[in-house]
Amino acid sequence: SRRHKLYREELNLTSPAAPLPLRPEASWLQFHLGISRDGLYPRSSPTINRLLRDMQDFTTISADYSQDEKALLGACDCSQIVKPSGVHLKLVLRFQDFGKAMFKPMRQKREEETPEDFFYFVDFQRHNAEIAAFHLDRILDFRRVPPTVGRLINVTKEILEVTKNEILQSVFFVSPASNVCFFAKCPYMCKTEYAVCGNPHLLEGSLSAFLPSLNLAPRLSIPNPWIRSYSFDGKEEWEVNPLYCNTVREIYPYSNGNRLLNIVDMAIFDFLIGNMDRHHYEMFTKFGDDGFLLHLDNARGFGRHSHDETSILAPLSQCCVMKRTTLLRLQLLAEPEYRLSDVMRESLLQDRLAPVLTEPHLLALDRRLQLILKAVKKCIDTYGEAKVVANDTTQLEAPASDRVKLST
């Protein structure tokens, strides 16, 4: 700490200017006010494009560890954890207008695939997967992934110089290649080998907009009924029992309403991105049991384009139900003139870190989409379309009473 203090004094690092007062038109606030029971934002929302630009352009005024890392520093039962947390470093960056975003730095080059022998719970977290997941979620018209954008961060000026966390300050160092690096501070398995480094200062990463605070818009975190075993040799019931869905259907709220259909939507989304790490999901309590599921933490997607993990589709293949709106959207994206890979490619070009995905990952989306449609066809052939396809209707814009209320 003493050396770090001298280092800062030598560079004559100064504190940033005080943040500007909150403006009612601020993109962060307008994003939060636009959340409704239909999704995190309306289909045509100029606010989201403005928010993405602000996350790319606004000056960082503070940086800190996320709550996950802070909890780990205070209490860690290391016998229950199989992954080195240093590999999964993420930071909270703050901006003017009380803006806040989760920063996940680049860990893996785009052309690299996850090794075949990696378990999903020790896989890297990929910044480009977070960016691509947001674009795919918007293309599917789910609107359940928080707005996410790529950005080049100057780790010296935008993290080291603005953080007040002495622990975060203490893990910065200069590598033998003269690059500025930092790593997660934790009580186990954290080494300089796990550091992320600028080139020499610039580091690319993803920025995901924070949702409203829990005291303004409470959320529930609920275990996924199709949770995977987080051990090297364990199996969950759904992995060995093809009739597992019958058990799930007996449990409220999966016994009626939209919850099971939303679980299937989430499974389809995860299969397309190759995410096996969906152990929980979150919901806004305000919208009740039929509210939409938030698709958070997608950084373990897009790891292997050469492999399709069909077990992710277990909710669809075992329950044989799906929303009609979801099916129609998937069928449209399977048409040559609206091919999913083409739509994704065009959408991702809007991001400053483009190309976000390599071509094999884009083509894998088309292949996986066909596998989803084949699974639906098999269900329809077995049970009939009336029992498989749920006739949900596209709701009109939610009234003001259905929006998240933010108090001062």
TrEMBL record:
Primary localization class, coarse: Golgi
Gene Ontology terms: cellular component: Golgi apparatus
Cofactor(s), by name: Mn(2+)
Residues given in the record as Mn(2+) binding sites: 297
InterPro entries xref list: FAM20 (IPR024869), FAM20_C (IPR009581)
One Gene Ontology term of the molecular function aspect: ATP binding
Signal peptide positions (record): none
Pfam family, one: Fam20C
Keyword ATP-binding set for record: yes
Keywords: ATP-binding, Disulfide bond, Glycoprotein, Golgi apparatus, Kinase, Manganese, Metal-binding, Nucleotide-binding, Transferase
Binding of ATP, residues: 104, 208-211, 282, 297
Residue intervals of the FAM20 C-terminal domain: 172-389
Family: Belongs to the FAM20 family.
Name by which UniProt lists this protein: FA20A Pseudokinase
Gene that this sequence comes from: Fam20a
